[in-house]
Amino acid sequence: MTTLVGKKAPVFRATAVKGSEIIQDFSLEQYLGKKYVVFFFYPMDFTFVCPTELHAFQEKKAEFEKRDVAVVGCSVDSEFSHFQWLQMDKKFGGIKGVEYPIVADFSKTISENYGVLASEFGYDDEGNAVSEGAPVSYRGLFLIDKEGVVRHITINDLPLGRNVDEALRMVDALRHFEQYGEVCPANWSEGKDAMKATNEGVAGYLSNH
């Protein structure tokens, strides 16, 4: 399995829904040179864990915006499903009040290109892999820099909700590295000391051994 880290994020054009607005020909290319992007996938509309995640991203929307980050969601549902879910109140399991775009990947090609399409596979009589059931997206998250390069990925299995604060921490780490040239050690968070990446320590060790 290959990774997208360090590579350009796959380009797509699709329909998205933002609040009560349906956006045709939506693309992440609109953010190039302007914003970082947190592009996250979730399995399906009208489910259980998914609305908790979408509301959690909404609750931190101002924090992402302070950091020049556009938050964009995506699932394999249609734009019509997204629209209906966005009109449903939170107390009934809806996501009314979510303000960032949600992409409709009804063809499942975006999920496939980002490597997050979950499916059970069997084999036909000729030995070809055949999807069984209706594939949905794993809980994938991609941090994309302003040049359109993927810098961080997490992919959770379907039952495991993600930590939105961790996504913010990774944004902070990337911005710190870009601004100061310092690398961020384990458990680093904004305000803590980072590290200068040099070859001096390695050179000194090798000269003494």
Automatic annotation (TrEMBL):
Subcellular compartments: Cytoplasm
Chief location of this protein within or outside the cell: cytoplasm
Biological processes per GO annotation: cell redox homeostasis; cellular response to stress; hydrogen peroxide catabolic process; response to oxidative stress
Active-site feature positions: C50
Record key words, sorted: Cytoplasm, Disulfide bond, Oxidoreductase, Peroxidase, Redox-active center
CDD domains assigned to the protein according to its UniProt record, in alphabetical order: PRX_Typ2cys
Record GO cellular component, one term: cytosol
Keyword Oxidoreductase assigned: yes
Key word Oxidoreductase present: yes
Domain Thioredoxin stretches: 3-176
Pfam families: 1-cysPrx_C, AhpC-TSA
MF terms in GO: thioredoxin peroxidase activity
Annotated function: Thiol-specific peroxidase that catalyzes the reduction of hydrogen peroxide and organic hydroperoxides to water and alcohols, respectively. Plays a role in cell protection against oxidative stress by detoxifying peroxides.
Family: Belongs to the peroxiredoxin family. AhpC/Prx1 subfamily.
Name of this chain's protein: Thioredoxin peroxidase
